[in-house]
Amino acid sequence: MTQETWARVREILKEILGANSYANxxxxxxxxxxxxxxxxxxxxxxxxxxxxxxxxxxxxTHKLHETGAAIDRLSFSVGKPRDTKAPAKAPRAEGxxxxxxxxxTFDTFVVGKPNELAHAAARRVAExxxxxxxxxxxxxxxxxxKTHLMHAIAxxxxxxxxxxxxxxxxxxQFMYRFIxxxxxxxxxxxxSLFRSVDVLMVDDVQFIAGKDSTQEEFFHTFNALxxxxxxxxxxxxxxxxxxxxxxxxxxxxxxCGLVVDLHPTDYELRLGIMQAKAEAFKPLYPEIHLAAxxxxxxxxxxxxxxxxxxxxxxxxxxxxxLVGRDVNLExxxxxxxxxxxxxxxxxxxxxxxxxxxxxxxIRLSDMLGxxxxxxxxxxxxxxxxxxxxxxxxxxxxIGRRFGGRDHTTVMHGVxxxxxxxQNDSQLADDIELLKRALSE
Length: 440
Ligand code: ADP
Ligand code: MG
Hints:
The protein has 19 helices and eight strands. The protein is an alpha/beta fold and 440 residues long.
C-alpha cells in the first residue's frame, strides 16, 4: 500500500461519506505506512482517532482491500496535530468558503407532498426579516433533503443580504471545533465566533446527543443567539423529543420554534426528482438517449432515499457513456442490479406478519387470531396491505395465511389502509419504514 492508494481511497470515502464528514474525519488523517500488514493512520487528535476507528475502520479497510492494498488491519496513532493550533475559522472567510454546496439551492429542490411543509418553512426563513419561529427545526430520515434545504436557506439569505453573517456547521463540526478549541485554549474565540453570527445552522444535531460537554456548550450558544434575536435552523434525523440522550432542557428549547418533518418520498416526488436530475444530465451527456420508462422504473424500484436514487442515475449515465450505450431498461437492470435487487427480494407473507407484529408490539397469534379489537385489527390490516403490495399472493391466498379469513376481508383491509394513508402521515411513515425493513 502506498500514499497513492491512500489518496485514491480518500476520494472514494469522500463520495461515500459526503463532503462534511469527509472534511471532519478523513481529511485530517495521514497515512503513516504499513508494517506487518498493519496500516497506520495518523490522526491529529485522540478524539478523531477514536471516532474514525469506531465508525469507519471497517469501511476504510474494505475500500483499501478493493483498491488492492494488501493489509490485514488498521491502526491509529495520534500524530503531530495539524489543525489544533488553528483558531476556529472565521464564519465568512475571505473567499466564499462557506462549506455550502452550490447545487443545493431552492431552484434545484423539487417540491412534493412529502416535503412541502418543510420547503415552505425554509422559504419563509430564507426571506430574512422577522419570522415567527425560532428555531426552525427540520427533521426526517436520511437522504430526504434536510441538508439541501439548509444550504438553500443559507444561499438565499446570503444573496439577499450579503452582509449577513450566516454560519452553517454540521453538529460534528460544532463538536470538533469545540473540542479543538478546548485543547488549544481558544475557547473564548470559539464562543465569540459562534455568538457573533446572525444566522446559525446546525445540521444533524442528533450527533451531539450523549456528548455532555458539547451539548452544554450548544445549549449556551443556542440561548445566547435566541436571546439576541438571531435566527437558528437545526436539523436532525428525528423529532426533538425522540432524540435519545439529549438533555431535556435542550429538547424543550428545540421544540419552542417550528418543528417540521420531511416525509419519506412518494413515487411522484421521486419521479419529479429523477426528471429534474435527468434534465441536468442532458448537457453533460448530449450523445446519450434516455429511453422512455427508465425514470419511472427507477422511481418505482429504488428506495425513498433521494441520495440513493440520484446515485443510481449518475451511475447509469456514467456507465452508458463509458460503454457507448443508451440509457434504457436493460442497461438499468444490468448496471443497477445491486440497488434494485434489494427490493426484488421475495418477501413472504409470514415475514410481513412477523415484522408488523414486532413493530406494533402484538403477538403473532393475536394478529392471526379472531380478535377484532382495534389494537390487533389495525396491524392485521397493515400486514394484509403489505402482503398485497409486496408479494404476488392473491387475496384468497393472503386470507388463508391470516387464519383462514375470507378474501373480501383482505380486500377491505387493504383498501382501508390505502385510504387512511392519504391523511394519516404517521401511518404512511410507519408503512414506509416497514417496507424498508422488509426489503433489507
Ligand atoms: P439529508 O440531509 O436529509 O440526509 P440531503 O439534503 O443530503 O439529505 O439530500 C440527499 C441528496 O438528495 C442531495 O443530493 C439532495 O440534493 C437530494 N435531494 C433530496 N431531496 C431533494 C428534492 N426534494 N429535490 C431535489 N433533490 C433532492
Ligand atoms: Mg444531511
